[in-house]
Amino acid sequence: MQRTFRWLAVIAIVLGVALPVIPQIIWSLAHRWLFPALLPTEWSMSSWEYVFSPSSRVVEGFMNSLEIAVFVCILSILVGLPAARAIALNDFKGKGIIEWLLMVPIIVPGIVSTLGIHQLFIRLHLTNTFIGVSLVHLIPCIPYMVLVMVSVFSNYGTELEDTARTLGAGPIRVFLNVTLPGILPGLMVATMFTFLISWGQYITTVLIGGGTIVTLPVVLFPFITGINYSNAAAISLVFVAPAILVLIFTSRQLGQDSAVMGGFGRL
Amino acid sequence: MNRLKLMEKLRVPMMLFPAIAIIVVLFGGGMISGVGQSVGYFPVIGLNDFTLDYYRDVLTDDGFMTSLWLTFRLAFLSTLFASVLAVAFALVLRHAFRGSRLLTLIYQVPIPIPHLVVATGIVLLVSQSGLLSRGSVALGLTQTPRDFPVMVFDPAGVAIQLTFLWKEVPFIGVVVLAVLKSVGPQYEEIARTLGANSWQRFRYVLFPLMLPGILSTSIIVFAFVFANYEIPLLLGVRHPTTLPVMAFRNYQDPDLALRPQAMAISMILAVVAIILLVAYKRLAKYAVES
């Protein structure tokens, strides 16, 4: 009985995960694949050539996505790390309100705030700019970074920092030699997922970037239900690459920290 | 000395300020601008007077209620199915068996993958000329693409649900699995010695252990699907569509006069989302305590 269930689960998981991936890989290499053939009758690399040609704008989109996501990560760390530490290690008046304020952008649908921000950014001349798109990506990213780092700092003792300070270490040294090594595993996971949240943004980028800032999801979107399956599949596989890297680096942490997991639900 | 005290007092506010400032200015500013437009403040097209007409127009529109129901249904069903499957897989994966570690790794693959990639794969898999349809011809079940059931651009939203399921089952599952693994088998053993059958062991031992994890992750799934724009737009029918798509379409309409309506829809969407999530949290707290 239990063995039957186990086999059913094994088959369901392996097939379930593989099934949407398989046709993407095959289509990206297919030249001629008419219905109802199970495999392409002619193979070619033409959609991969298309992906790397300037006219597809895939490389351009990839670089824009990368630049925005890195910029967003740096800003999220710079503002999120001190805020998380303040919340996790201190009790102060209004802490509840502060935590609530940082949660609201997670509860309110992103499209609602983005539509409002669009009008605001038009007036501030931030639409169609790199900085405008990055700023709007910060809205889901900062709360996430703070949330994860609060849970990291909650399990973090400051005794070592005090010792280092007593021994005469300055604030920069204390941070680099004591604090950073202590929080690094958590910070790395948080940063990778902040990266992925920005990497996956579509609607915010389209609205605020207005077609001027072309990121990879913006390039991919019209292909998904288009007629050129081969190009759709190849672009989609380029888009998924960083996620696979992140999975390899973080698979150990998965499921161990529920705050970290919270971020996965936002991708 | 006084300066030191002041510095110490300002330390926490200074650490919080940048994050709070960005959220208040961007998110708060966006919300205020949105509320303003929804009640008739849109100077660009000469609207300056306060009115609730747009809310009335939206709420009395038949299409709105249909959309609200569709949005809710998709979010509710995705969350329900994902939770059930996640629990089932966790029950199997918690045991160590040959290849169980590799299987757990495969199980985690969907978690960081962007939804747009999943949508691409689902289209290539379940559309009428997709891989499954081809397989069904090979097995002699169907002859033409049209014999295969419509799962993309269908009123029921099968492809939409599949996309969310593929993403969210492992998301809930990994959290639940971590709980079961950290607890270990001893509670179950005790229940077994006390004569509990396998259903009783699940119902009274394992399920209560999993419940907090299920609730905390499913609330994220519900909020995500309820607010999602891309997937229903890509894989759903044009009418009826979900509220986020409806709001965005009205917003993008060349007729700027539709924008206050778009804002009214999006504000209602926000309010409904907040009410549902608060209610869910209350319910979850009640369920965990009892």
Please, could you describe this protein's structure?
The complex is a heterodimer of chains A (267) and B (290). Chain A has 267 residues and is mainly alpha-helical. Chain A has a domain at 69-213 and 258-264: Orthogonal Bundle (MetI-like fold), CATH 1.10.3720. Chain A is built from 13 helices and 2 strands; from the N terminus they run H-H-E-E-H-H-H-H-H-H-H-H-H-H-H. Chain A has a two-stranded antiparallel sheet. Chain A is globular, with a radius of gyration of 22 Å. The model of chain A has no long low-confidence stretch (mean pLDDT 90). With 290 residues, chain B is mainly α. Chain B has a single domain, classed as MetI-like fold (Orthogonal Bundle). Chain B contains 12 helices and no strands. The model of chain B has no long low-confidence stretch (mean pLDDT 92). Chains A and B meet through helix 1, helix 2, helix 4, helix 5 and helix 6 of A and helix 1, helix 3, helix 4, helix 5 and helix 6 of B.
List keywords for this structure.
heterodimer; A: 267 residues; mainly alpha; MetI-like fold; two-stranded antiparallel ribbon; 13 helices; 2 strands; 74% helix; globular; B: 290 residues; 12 helices
Write the layout of secondary structure elements.
The complex is a heterodimer of chains A (267) and B (290).
Chain A: H1 2-18, H2 22-28, E1 30-32, E2 42-43, H3 46-51, H4 58-89, H5 95-107, H6 110-123, H7 130-154, H8 159-166, H9 171-200, H10 203-209, H11 216-224, H12 229-250, H13 258-264
Antiparallel strand pairs in A: 1-2
Chain B: H1 2-38, H2 53-60, H3 62-93, H4 100-108, H5 115-126, H6 131-138, H7 158-183, H8 186-193, H9 198-227, H10 230-235, H11 243-252, H12 259-289
Helix pairs in contact in B: 1-12, 2-12, 3-7, 3-9, 5-7, 7-9, 8-9, 9-12, 11-12
